[in-house]
Design a protein that fits this description.
about 375 residues, alpha+beta, Butyryl-Coa Dehydrogenase, subunit A, domain 1, Butyryl-CoA Dehydrogenase, subunit A, domain 2, 10 strands, binds acetoacetyl-coenzyme A
């Protein structure tokens, strides 16, 4: 049965991530958000500390840890800066995980090792201008040409898009076969015809970079196919199952950070002759926020625990993402209310929690898609 006891190693990882977040990530977070500046040095340090390949085996340069360790670190880092959280989540769950699971030894040496050690970072390229939630309707085409596949098309909303060196790209190799005709390619930055668009000017997670990618007759060698021809959609879905745990942990971090900020502020701000924390109106808000954080935490840890115990965690990951992302938005909104006017200006950070929270209800499967996944799994269980 689900056991939430953290080992000494888990506690050590959580404390290391907490210290790193406070000392290295927090000081520049407001400026980076304002200027939409990518945290290059922070990402390098994360590589050195082992946060970029947390679940990658040590033989490929990773930290060889479990998913619970990963969500503990994700929560601490996202509590301070969700932009850094998403860079970490995409690299760990959507890029490293897939290469470790489906890659050849040669691919692991060439791509996984640099990704796990932070020599470069990765991006996951599934979404397209006309294929978001409906991920099977990929328009990007790959056609075989001798030892190469030639890619043409456009990808949208790609996290780490301008900074990554390695891209996991999905393309149709046989349109007739629908999702069974989708193949996954590992594409390196710098290939002829492979370009990126301008960084998106986003509402939140502004310190992470997001852009579109263009493929104009990009020649990718056959040895860069991840898995088998036609296996791409399965790889995408299975990567996203784990990715949703990562984003749920990011949302949990945002909610926990917003809640902590509200509690702290309420003890300092005085109104009607006493700290506002002594007013029942505020206490009820704090209690509601803390309850949502606690419930989200249980769902996130449970889904990670199920993954670690090789159980079917599809539904659990969607429960966690759906609830944690909704809670992050609600808790951030209430944290602003507790701060009053100060919550509405940049210096007080809580407005950023709200801007950062919103995306967690959109990427790696919208909340609507999480409902679809949960309902389908429920019905399968009943059948
Ligand atoms: N895990 C494993 N396999 C899955 C799966 C899952 N969660 N969901 C579907 N599949 C499999 C099905 O079993 C089926 O396989 P078979 O044909 O072998 O049986 C196949 O995939 C097709 O499934 P469906 O027929 O159910 O496909 P569908 O089109 O009806 O719906 C969907 C699938 C669940 C809606 C899916 O398209 C989906 O998850 N969409 C959301 C896409 C998404 O999350 N995008 C995020 C973009 S990435 C991103 O945001 C990264 C970033 O940069 C932050």
């Amino acid at each position: 049965m689900f056991n939430l006891e953290l080992s000494e190693e888990h506690i050590m990882i959580r404390d290391t991530a907490r210290q790193f977040a406070r000392e290295e990530v927090a000081p520049s977070s407001i400026e980076r958000d304002k200027n939409a500046e990518f945290p290059t040095e922070i990402v390098q340090k994360m590589g050195e500390l082992g946060f970029l390949g947390m679940m990658v085996p040590t033989e490929w340069g990773g930290s060889g840890l479990d998913a619970l360790s990963y969500v503990l670190a994700m929560e601490e880092i996202s509590k301070v800066d969700a932009s850094v959280g998403v860079i970490m989540s995409v690299n760990n769950s959507l890029v490293c995980w897939g290469i470790n699971e489906f890659g050849t030894d040669d691919q692991k040496e060439r791509f996984l090792r640099p990704l796990a050690t932070g020599q470069t970072i990765g991006a996951f390229c599934l979404s397209e201008p006309e294929a978001g939630s409906d991920a099977t309707s990929q328009h990007t085409m790959a056609t075989e040409d001798g030892d190469y596949w030639v890619l043409n098309g456009t990808k949208n909303w790609i996290t780490n898009g301008t900074s990554a060196g390695i891209f996991i790209v999905f393309a149709q190799t046989d349109r007739e076969k629908r999702h069974k005709g989708i193949t996954c390619f590992i594409v390196e930055k710098g290939l002829e015809g492979f370009t990126h668009g301008l960084k998106e000017d986003k509402l939140g997670i502004r310190s992470s970079d997001t852009c579109s990618l263009g493929f104009d007759n990009v020649r990718v060698h056959k040895d860069c196919i991840l898995g088998e021809v036609g296996q791409g959609f399965k790889i995408a879905m299975e990567s996203l199952n784990g990715g949703r745990i990562g984003i749920a942990a990011q949302a949990l971090g945002i909610a926990a950070g917003a809640c902590e900020a509200a509690v702290q502020y309420s003890t300092q701000r005085k109104a009607f002759g006493k700290p506002i924390s002594e007013l029942q109106a505020i206490q009820f808000k704090l209690a509601e926020m803390a309850t949502k954080v606690e419930a989200a935490r249980l769902l996130v840890y449970k889904s990670a625990w199920m993954k670690d115990h090789h159980m079917n965690y599809i539904k659990s990951a969607s429960h966690a993402k759906l609830f944690a992302s909704k809670s992050a938005v609600e808790v951030a909104l209430e944290a602003i209310q507790v701060h009053g006017g100060y919550g509405y200006v940049r210096e007080y950070l809580v407005e950023r929690y709200l801007r950062d929270a919103k995306i967690t209800e959109i990427y790696e499967g919208t909340s609507e898609i999480q409902h679809v996944v949960i309902a389908r799994e429920l019905l399968k269980e009943m059948a």
